[in-house]
């Protein structure tokens, strides 16, 4: 059975947890499933270069007539009653699963982003799996832009009602023990000798992670910084 792609509602975004709470609620057992059971769904459907798993969280509150739109390195609220030509190339970039289907909650100004409605077998299987694992309130789907696949280390921070992404080097004191992983991209593990992808029975290898340093500070909307790192 196909999964319904729902219309946007600001409630789908506003009801998400802060990055700090979301990171606390994602257990080591949940994380262990990413590179096995969950990751296998991505490589089975060959969508690992298009979509990843995202830790569900918000940055700040949106009004009902607003959507959060990523434009290059900045994400800001846009009015949903903007001119049609302004919204023409705005596509969903992150989705969450609900009892009714899958709902977009973040967007990007990028006409080349994949549309989840074109990947029904994938999203339907992933929805069933996450529901069985009781992870639909913790994990969602995000779409990758072409520049995301080979991106260098980045840091995201919230300033007022804008979320900004900048190049950043991880300081030693901000290592993995002080960060929250927020986005995962999957691929098949290579054979040690050939370095070629193995068959689907092999657990996928996580190639890249977006990390959020658990530092609090003044004027940081969700009191954390998103560090995107390439492994």
Model description:
By secondary structure, this protein is of the alpha+beta class. The protein is 20% helix and 33% strand. The chain has five helices and eleven strands, in the order H-H-H-E-E-E-H-E-E-H-E-E-E-E-E-E. It has an eleven-stranded mixed β-barrel. The protein starts with 9 loop residues before the first helix and ends with a strand. The C terminus is likely disordered.
Number of helical segments with 4 or more residues:
5
Strand order of the biggest β-sheet = 1-6-4-5-2-3-8-7-11-10-9
For the largest beta-sheet, the strand count, sense and barrel status come to: 11 strands, mixed, barrel
What would the average pLDDT be, to the nearest integer?
78
Structural shape: globular
Overall radius of gyration: 17 Å
Instruction: Give unreliable regions as ranges.
Output: 193-202, 206-223, 227-231
Query: What is the N-to-C succession of helices and strands?
Result: HHHEEEHEEHEEEEEE
Helicity, in percent?
10-25%
What is the end-to-end distance?
A: 37 Å
Strand content: 25-35%
Secondary structure: number of strands: 11
The class by helix and strand makeup works out as: alpha+beta
Brief digest:
It is built from five helices and eleven strands, in the order αααβββαββαββββββ.
Question: What characteristics describe this protein?
Answer:
33% strand, alpha+beta, eleven-stranded mixed beta barrel, disordered C terminus, globular, 231 residues, 11 strands, 5 helices
């Amino acid at each position: 059975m196909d999964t319904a792609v729902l219309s946007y509602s600001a409630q789908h975004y506003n009801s998400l947890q802060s990055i700090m709470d979301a990171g606390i609620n994602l257990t080591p057992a949940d994380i262990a499933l990413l590179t096995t059971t969950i990751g296998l769904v991505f490589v089975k459907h060959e969508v690992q270069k298009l979509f990843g798993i995202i830790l569900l969280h918000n940055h700040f509150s949106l009004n009902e007539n607003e959507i959060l739109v990523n434009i290059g390195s900045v994400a800001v609220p846009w009015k949903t009653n903007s001119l049609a030509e302004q919204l023409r190339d705005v596509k969903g970039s992150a989705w969450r699963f609900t009892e009714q289907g899958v709902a977009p909650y973040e967007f990007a100004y990028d006409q080349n982003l994949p549309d989840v409605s074109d990947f029904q077998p994938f999203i339907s299987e992933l929805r069933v799996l996450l529901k069985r694992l009781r992870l639909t309130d913790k994990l969602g789907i995000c779409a990758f832009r072409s520049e995301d696949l080979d991106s260098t280390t980045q840091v995201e921070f919230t300033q007022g009602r804008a979320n900004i992404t900048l190049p950043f080097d991880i300081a030693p004191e901000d290592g993995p023990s002080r960060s929250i992983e927020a986005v995962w991209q999957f691929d098949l593990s290579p054979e040690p000798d050939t370095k070629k992808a193995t068959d689907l029975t092999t657990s996928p290898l996580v190639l890249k992670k977006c990390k959020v340093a658990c530092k609090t500070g003044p004027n940081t909307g969700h009191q954390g910084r998103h560090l995107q790192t390439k492994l």
